[in-house]
Write a structure and sequence with these properties.
The protein is of the alpha+beta class. It has six helices and eight strands. The longest helix has 22 residues.
Amino acid sequence: MSKEAPIQQKADDARVNIESEGSIDSANAENTEVSVEIVRDFEVGDAVVYPSHGVGKVTAVEKQEIAGHTMELYVVEFVDDKMTLRVPKARAVKTGLRSLCNHDAFENALEILKEKPQSNRGMWSKRAQEYSDKINSGKIEQIAEVLRDLHKNVEHPERSYSERMIYDLAFDRFLAEFSEAKSLSRDDARTKILDILETASILAA
């Protein structure tokens, strides 16, 4: 059963709950000037990236009337998360919704995977938050940095559960976009990424 980002509409109190900075409610709808927002156009069927959920697909463009304002919403489905998100078209840029990375961006990201891992000093809780922030930035280069820094301990018996979870999340986000952008199967994309990370680990040893 797929989860769906909540959208509620009532006669006297219409509002849309959209994740992150896309939120609009009836209290401030009258002061919202969506016409001044930068509009990013996506079409149904486009693969897109949302910072906190990774790769999804635009399945529809809907119109909703919110507190007297007609608003277009991108309906984005995330198969891996089994959820659907509705993002105001006029706020797509502000919420971080973007197209898949191009060739140059991925080349830069792959070069980051080949680099020597940064030293992990300081409290894990602080570093864990920094890693999580990088993953949820939606920026492929920052996700690559997390993979680069955490891969060296991937099989370490004393690795904490939280470190493993953060690594797995970063890997899944990178894998999903890499395979989609390069038109590769998940297995082929996974092999390519792991080959780069393993070679980098051997060279850094």
